[in-house]
Design a protein that fits this description.
Length: 233
């Protein structure tokens, strides 16, 4: 079991939203140190928090973070981006950026930190996905989260040999700036962060944070036509 108390934790995208809630949650559970990243420099006055700039699209930036956080024992791959656009008519570059951040950014982090986690006893890698990993209708974002889900499942097999727990998190809508324009019920970041860390400490391989996500996962065995998201419903 990977308990958070006494551990050194990395949270990407830790400045706001769910990332900030994860920083708060692991500190509340006794984390010894938390590296919290953002795309630009910022200040957190808590002595246990070390802030760092990170651009997950940059190999050099990820490598610099790995060098600075060589004592990491738990990594939360939380950084993500949502650029709404239709797949057929939207700006193609927006789709490229979405995959660069949500898929390849998370994979860069996993590749950089896998040897660090191994050297520090195995630890855990926690990847953020979405209920939209399983539902059509959200363009490149949903496609990127589906790809990230597949990557996580393969990383779980590859990292098992070094005793690294790999957790995939699927969440519905969280009350953050990213989905502020979507008028659907949303969980608070603090509620979701607590469920994620509960799952991590309970040795879960997958965390489904709400009823909508549980229902979507169950629907995977049914007709593909039922796997669609509509903001109107």
């Amino acid at each position: 079991m990977v308990a958070v108390a006494g551990k050194v934790v990395v949270v990407t995208g830790g400045r706001r939203g769910l990332g900030a809630a994860l920083v708060d949650e692991v500190l509340a559970r006794g984390a010894r140190k938390v590296y919290s990243t953002a795309r630009s420099a910022y200040i957190d006055d808590r002595p246990e928090v070390v802030t760092a700039e990170l651009e997950v699209r940059s190999e050099a930036s990820v490598a610099a973070l790995a060098e600075a956080a060589a004592d990491a024992e738990i990594v939360f791959n939380n950084a993500g981006i949502l650029l709404p656009a239709p797949l057929l008519t939207g700006d193609f570059q927006r789709a490229v950026v979405t995959f660069e951040v949500n898929v390849f950014g998370a994979l860069r982090m996993a590749r950089a930190f896998a040897p660090i986690l191994a050297a520090n006893g195995g630890g855990a890698l926690v990847n953020m996905h979405s209920v939209l990993s399983w539902l059509a209708g959200s363009g490149a974002y949903g496609a990127s989260k589906a790809a990230a889900w597949s990557i996580t499942n393969s990383l779980r097999l590859e990292l098992a040999r070094q005793n690294t727990q790999v957790v995939g998190v699927h969440a519905g809508f969280i009350d953050t700036e990213m989905v502020s324009a979507i008028e659907l019920p949303k969980a608070t970041p603090a509620e979701v962060a607590a469920r994620i860390v509960d799952g991590l400490e309970a040795e879960a391989t997958e965390v489904l944070t709400d009823d909508a996500t549980v229902a979507a996962k169950a629907a995977l065995s049914g007709p593909v036509e039922h796997l669609a998201f509509s903001a109107a419903r």
